[in-house]
Amino acid sequence: MKSDVQYNQKSTSTSPHADCWPLRSDSRAKRLFDLVLTIPGLILLSPLLGFVAVAIKLGDGGPVFFRQQRVGKNGAVFTIIKFRSMHVDADQHGRLVTIGNDPRITPIGRVLRRTKLDELPQLINVLRGEMSLVGPRPMVAHYVDLFTPEQRRVLNLMPGITDPASLTYRHEQAYLGQLGDPEWVYIHEVLPHKLQINLGYASHANIGTDLMVILRTLFTR
Predict the structure, then answer these.
(1) Higher-confidence residue: 5 or 122?
(2) Which of 221, 214, 97 is nearest to 162 (CA)?
(3) Alpha-carbon distance 107 to 142, whole Å?
(4) What does DSSP say about strands 77-83 and 65-71: parallel, antiparallel, or unpaired?
(5) How many Cβ atoms are within 10 Å of 158's Cβ, its own excluded?
(6) Secondary structure element (H or E) that encloses residue 134, with its range
(7) Given 3-state DSSP classes, what are the helix, strand and coil percentages for the chain, each rounded to the nearest 5?
(8) Exposure of 192 by Cβ count < 10 A (0-12 exposed, 13-18 middle, 19+ buried)?
(9) Is this model's pTM higher than 0.70 or not?
(10) CB 82 within 8 A of CB 52
C-alpha cells in the first residue's frame, strides 16, 4: 500500500523552466501505456516469477522479497519491491551502494542482478500507481537529502523501473567495485550525472521515447 508519508522537499521549482516541463508522468496516456504493458506482462511472466521465488527460498530459506522505503513523486514515500538478492538484513550492514563483488550478494542474487530479474516485482509498484515503467529510479531519503534545489526537480516526476541513466550506467556496480571509495564517487560523480541525464530526458520524453528506453533495457547487454 502506498505510504501517506510525504518526504520534505526543500524546493522543486528554483529553475525558471521547472514548471514548464511536459510532466508526462501525469498524463493519462502514460498511465494507460504502463497498464497495457504491465498487466499482460505480469500474467506472462508469472511462471518465471514463481521459479525465481522458489530459487530464492531454497537458496537460504530467507524471505523472497526485499522491501525498502524510497522517495517517489512529489516526495511521497513508498515501499519498493524487489526479489531479494542479498543476505537477510544486508541493507542494515555496510554501505548503501552495491559494488561488483559485494560479499552481501547471494549466489542466486548475482544471477538476478546480472539479468535484472530482481527488478521484476516492481511491476507491482507500477500497477499500484507508485511507479512507472520509465522514469528516474527512486532513491532512499539519504541520497535525496543531498540533492541540490535544481536536482530536486526530479521529484516532480513519477519514478520508474528503468531510465536513460540506468542504461548509461548499466555497469555501475562493476565500475564502483574498482574504486577505493565507491560511496564518494557515487555521491559526487555518478549521482549528479544520473540526475542530469534524467532531467534532460524529461524535457522531451513521450510515449515513443519511453518505448525506446524499454526496448533498449530489454535488449542491451
Answers:
(1) 122
(2) 214
(3) 28
(4) antiparallel
(5) 25
(6) strand 132-134
(7) 55, 10, 35
(8) middle
(9) yes
(10) no
